[in-house]
Amino acid sequence: MTKKPLVGILTTMTAPLLPLLLRSLYQQGLSNLCVIADEKNFSAKDREIWIQRTGGAFDSLGVEIYDFSKNVLPFYLVKNHNGDDCLELLKKKAACPFD
Asked: Which of 36, 42, 64, 95 could form a disulfide with 5, with the two C-beta atoms 3.0–4.6 Å apart?
């Protein structure tokens, strides 16, 4: 039996679209997910730009990252998505090895 590939979402914990992305993926039946978050945060300046550009359209949808706790979604924290710790994690979790 072949191993089902794991889909890794590269993000930050405070990315405003993360809850909506996860909800959409679950609604499409994709459940073999993990979240790989680096240490960056969405700054106050980034948040202001986000609200200005989106007109606040995504702020009232009522989906939070904590809504996914019942799905036992694994979260991995790395210093940087381009760092060695992230690459090692991907090698460990990948269905096929990276060269």
From this structure: 95
